UniProtKB/TrEMBL annotation:
One Pfam family here: ADH_zinc_N
PANTHER family, alphabetized: NAD-DEPENDENT ALCOHOL DEHYDROGENASE, S-NITROSOMYCOTHIOL REDUCTASE MSCR
InterPro entries recorded: ADH-like_C, ADH-like_N, ER, GroES-like_sf, NAD(P)-bd_dom_sf
Protein known as: NAD(P)-dependent alcohol dehydrogenase
Alphabetical UniProt keywords: Membrane, Metal-binding, Oxidoreductase, Transmembrane, Transmembrane helix, Zinc
Length: 362
């Protein structure tokens, strides 16, 4: 089948809207999905910084949502017409997957980032019949259609705004999962979130929904205004004595801090903002050495990296849509939609901080 997609041919090239082709229907365990919307995530854009590692040309996009068109085999648990949110790929067989931690799958990098593919996956080609890289994050959903493993697809209520749900499969999942799963935040807890982008604001909303007191740190006034709308105390990242200010606001230090910035300065500020036994989670990939200042890990404090919010998507995504329906996780307020043809404009707006979460509509 032939359909339109945004193809990235070079690490410094703009996306190009092209006709692409899948040479076969769904294999056993796969589904064909008509994409209703796909979030543009900074992980998609990070391909440009990892030149040579993620293979090109490729169709990116890994926050897709859509309608099942066709299924392969009888055991997918899904059928034509089902509404689904697509999430990251995993093997389903390794020790981590079997232990309920698919984000730490032994094959996570190969399947999601570096061109791994299953033996029976359909061949993905451009309009001239030349091969494109295997599907990105099991999806390649900057397109009108995507062929995905059924285990990556989470069914959702057909009454939900399907075109807006894709970011629940990665960015919003990561922020909310860090708070609800990695930290296990509950009523009366204190949380400091460093970086009020899509992941950070999802963490703010989830922490507020859990009954926590939340402080949000960022350098963009408009992002801080959003955090305040979601009931966080906003603090400019340049505030003098920032850790002391957070400690005073939280009555002796935050129990949990989440850093989405990968800034060494802010990571050290986050550690100094913690109370004894506090936990700092990092979700952004570090690209430089991280020198920790003396004393930051004293008194039982700890630091860990969190991938995909430590989430099992099939469990967390329905929880988040339920919170949205109850008015307690208003992720739609972070979204601006763009036609898929305007993917380069969406990328520029994302890079410039003019939009929190772009969603592309085929």
């Amino acid at each position: 089948m032939r359909f339109g997609a945004a193809v990235l041919r070079g690490y410094e090239d703009p996306f190009a809207i092209e006709e692409v082709m899948l040479d076969a229907g769904p294999a056993d365990g796969e589904i064909l999905v008509r994409i209703a919307g796909c979030g543009l995530c900074r992980t998609d854009l990070a391909v440009r910084r990892s030149a040579g590692r993620s293979p090109l040309p490729a169709v990116l996009g890994h926050e897709g949502s859509g309608v099942v068109v066709e299924t392969g085999g009888p055991d997918t648990g899904l059928g034509p017409g089902d509404h689904v949110v697509l999430s990251f790929d995993s093997c389903g067989r390794c020790r981590s997957c079997l232990g309920g931690a698919p984000a730490y799958c032994d094959r996570f990098a190969a399947l999601n980032l570096f061109g791994g593919r299953t033996e029976n996956a359909a061949r993905f080609t451009d309009g001239a019949g030349k091969a494109l890289a295997p599907r990105w994050f099991g999806q390649s959903s900057f397109a009108e259609y995507a062929m995905v493993p059924a285990r990556n697809a989470v069914p959702v209520d057909a009454s939900l705004p399907l075109e807006l749900l894709g970011p629940l499969g990665c960015g919003f999942l990561t922020g909310a999962g860090a708070v609800l799963h990695s930290f296990g935040v509950g009523p009366g807890d204190t949380v400091a979130v460093f970086g009020a982008g899509a992941v950070g604001l999802a963490a703010v909303m989830a922490a507020t929904a859990a009954g926590a007191f939340v402080v949000a740190v960022d350098r963009h006034p408009e992002r801080l205004a959003l955090a305040e709308r979601f009931h966080a105390v906003p603090l400019d990242a340049a505030t003098a004595g920032l850790p002391g200010r957070i400690q005073r606001l939280t009555g002796g230090g935050a129990q949990y801090a989440l850093d989405t910035t990968a800034s060494a300065r802010l990571i050290n500020d986050a550690l100094r903002s913690l109370r004894p036994t506090g936990h700092l989670g990092l979700v952004a990939r570090l690209r430089t050495a991280l020198p920790l200042e003396p004393g930051t890990l004293d008194r039982g404090r700890k630091i860990s990296h969190i991938c995909e919010g430590d989430a099992v998507p099939a469990l967390l995504i329905p929880r988040l849509t339920g919170l949205w329906q109850a008015g307690r996780f208003p992720f739609d307020q972070l979204i601006r939609t763009y036609p898929l043809a305007d993917v380069n404009e969406a990328e520029r707006d994302c890079d410039a901080g003019r939009v929190v979460k772009p969603v592309l509509i085929p």
